[in-house]
């Protein structure tokens, strides 16, 4: 890609920009933030690492959303973060206003771009951005499942002692306490984790995955996770930039898949240069389907708040 805009020059945005630049996934990255001097300083700091990391990507910062003009992809990380004790839903109202402003400017200056939503609550805000833009669903998607699945894979590696390179995990549902870690589809070099771990240990991993973000927030106290989310962003952008048609768990608008419509949820998607090419429907057991529907119910509860 030629140009990517990252709206939000906080820790997630900064780390994501650095990852994208080092991997040379585009020619230009513009960081946009309302805090005067912050995106400019962040961009310059990353740019000065170019001789060391050997990349030619050009970075600049701006306080004006108009700087996203001509972008092929806009990544939204801006918004107020969670504090200890807060849920992702607690920041909905404030972050919705941020996302609405971004979408409105995209309609003016980057009407052909794709939108990757990261700001929480990501499922609801992905839906809100899609609704406000009027764009086809393949151009609006969110990041959550890649992060949640990476956390699950990390916990499996910690528990088993095996190389994380051999571990694949899959997490579906809303990005919150009702997410659905899919243990049947979590393997170590193709071998289901049930071969190595007891049911009790697996359930502990499932619960830790659901609380992964809150665990980091409680430890840091003054900052939520940013390195792993930024790595997840880079993974999705890599799939788009190189047209890998890679199957990754992402937030997608559902149109009948999994029996759901008019909602955005975490599901396996095919990601390529055109964005979200299609949703992969997994065969769910009765219990998995029930958990997925419960997660959908929590997302719909937040979607109802948009109508008030």
UniProtKB/TrEMBL annotation:
Q: Where is the Lactate/malate dehydrogenase N-terminal domain?
A: 3-142
- Entries under PANTHER family matching the protein: L-2-HYDROXYCARBOXYLATE DEHYDROGENASE (NAD(P)(+)), L-LACTATE DEHYDROGENASE
- Stated name of the protein: Malate dehydrogenase
Per UniProt, what is one GO molecular function of this protein?
A: L-malate dehydrogenase (NAD+) activity
**Catalytic activity annotated for this protein?**
(S)-malate + NAD(+) = oxaloacetate + NADH + H(+)
Gene this chain is encoded by: mdh
Q: Where is the active site?
A: 175
Please provide the Gene Ontology terms (biological process) for this protein: lactate metabolic process; tricarboxylic acid cycle
Gene3D superfamilies for the chain: Lactate dehydrogenase/glycoside hydrolase, family 4, C-terminal, NAD(P)-binding Rossmann-like Domain
Glycoprotein keyword on record: no
What single Pfam family name could you report for this chain, choosing any that match?
Ldh_1_N
Which UniProt keywords are listed? Answer: NAD, Oxidoreductase, Tricarboxylic acid cycle
Superkingdom, taxonomy of origin? Bacteria
NCBIfam families, A to Z: MalateDH_bact, PRK06223.1
Residues that hold NAD(+) according to the record: 8-13, 33, 95, 118-120
Record lineage: Bacteria, Pseudomonadati, Pseudomonadota, Candidatus Muproteobacteria
Enzyme Commission number(s): 1.1.1.37
Q: Which family does it belong to?
A: Belongs to the LDH/MDH superfamily. MDH type 3 family.
Q: Which residues form the Lactate/malate dehydrogenase C-terminal domain?
A: 147-307
**What does the protein in this record do?**
Catalyzes the reversible oxidation of malate to oxaloacetate.
Q: Write down the InterPro entries for this protein, in alphabetical order.
A: L-lactate/malate_DH, Lactate/malate_DH_C, Lactate/malate_DH_N, Lactate_DH/Glyco_Ohase_4_C, Malate_DH_type3, NAD(P)-bd_dom_sf
Tell me which residues bind substrate: 82, 88, 120, 151
